[in-house]
Amino acid sequence: MLSILFFFQAPLAPPTWEEPYDAIDKGIICPQFSVPAGKTAQEDCLVASVYVPNTNATNLPVMVIIHGGQFLVGYGDVTTPKQLVDSQKLIAATCNYRLGILGFLCMGTEDIPGNAGMKDQVACLQWVKHNIASFGGNPDDVTIVGCSAGGSSVDLLMLSKLTRGLFKKVIGMSSANVGVTSVQLDPVEYARIQARRFNYDAANLYMLRSLTLQVNAGNHKMYLHEYSFVDNDSALIPYANIRGAAHCAQGFAAVDQNYSNLSYQYKNMKSIIREEWINFAITGNPTPEGCTAIPQWPPANAYRSPCMVFGQTVELKPTVMPLRATLWDLIYALFYRNPIPPTPGF
Ligand SMILES: *[C@@H]1O[C@H](CO)[C@@H](O)[C@H](O)[C@H]1NC(C)=O
Ligand SMILES: *[C@@H]1O[C@H](CO)[C@@H](O)[C@H](O)[C@H]1NC(C)=O
Ligand SMILES: *[C@@H]1O[C@H](CO)[C@@H](O)[C@H](O)[C@H]1NC(C)=O
Ligand SMILES: *[C@@H]1O[C@H](CO)[C@@H](O)[C@H](O)[C@H]1NC(C)=O
């Protein structure tokens, strides 16, 4: 897992190997809202594919294809150039670059300077320049190709001083550097809009932050839970195509509902949550001595550990969403603004 310090930064230098490296396609793609079957989305996603023709010829022209997808979706091998390479006249490469917020959040600060995804594209071209001769390609004869967001990309790469000497020719299609998907007119405002959307969807993340503040303020009997129980036949969340507990789902589980059409599992969960609430209301402890419905549950520390998860099973876990919570800690540390007191008499 990547350290959070690398988020939003230019990519690190690529690794080097002393021995031949077995470069198997592991289907790694950058995080995006819908992950195709057979692919693995992970933050450490900067991989390139090289397509080499079945020839012993060397110094072949090189084509680097930059994928499209609105800078939000896609991956290097979303289209493949096997037929181009079968001509035996060129060698081709594709690469991933970071997408969406991870690729393009831009605060104009040292921590989040912006355009990480474009810097990934530059890093890909640098890698090709330094390595493609070993695959039979000519590092001084690179053509970059892109359509849609890839078209914007190649157009932008032509303008950047960072790409001097990295390619000679460009095939740009169906977008350009002034397209709506190419320019963030007000990146900090866009970041605010995104943050508002996250707050709306992710109350639990600022709850985690509050828990730390409460414990630090001396409230030591804070019981951290995650309620993630869902019925198997509940509706899928649009786009994410997963099932998840809705806003306030635990609250609804504890209170009255029409029992005539509830699953056995949900009825059982309702009784567990009621017991938890009742225990807590009586003793200040959700699992006092003699409680059998829920495993023993100690209060959380300031590092949000442990956490009782009410999912398809009920179990105590060491923590909850550690990476996302750390990201939010960082955002709070860097950008949190205290409310501005009103000016008297204004
Ligand atoms: C490449 O060279 C090797 C060794 O000379 C030879 O065995 C092989 O057939 C050649 N491959 C092609 C595709 O020409
Ligand atoms: C969901 O389905 C699995 C397997 O089909 C079953 O074991 C489980 O009890 C079901 N859970 C709920 C909440 O319906
Ligand atoms: C409970 O739900 C059933 C259908 O699932 C319905 O027929 C019934 O009228 C509901 N009862 C109440 C009190 O709303
Ligand atoms: C009861 O639940 C089933 C399956 O969960 C669903 O198909 C049906 O429409 C529900 N009936 C009512 C009256 O809500």
Automatic annotation (TrEMBL):
**EC numbers for this chain:** 3.1.1.-
Q: Which domain of life is it from?
A: Eukaryota
- State the species of origin: Chilo suppressalis (Asiatic rice borer moth)
**Family of the protein in this entry:** Belongs to the type-B carboxylesterase/lipase family.
- EC category: hydrolase
Q: What PROSITE patterns does the entry give? A: CARBOXYLESTERASE_B_1
Recorded GO MF terms: carboxylic ester hydrolase activity
**Which keywords appear in this protein's UniProt record, sorted alphabetically?**
Disulfide bond, Glycoprotein, Hydrolase, Serine esterase, Signal
Q: What is the name listed in the Swiss-Prot or TrEMBL entry for this protein?
A: Carboxylic ester hydrolase
Ranges of residues in domain Carboxylesterase type B: 8-203
Cleavable signal peptide: 1-18
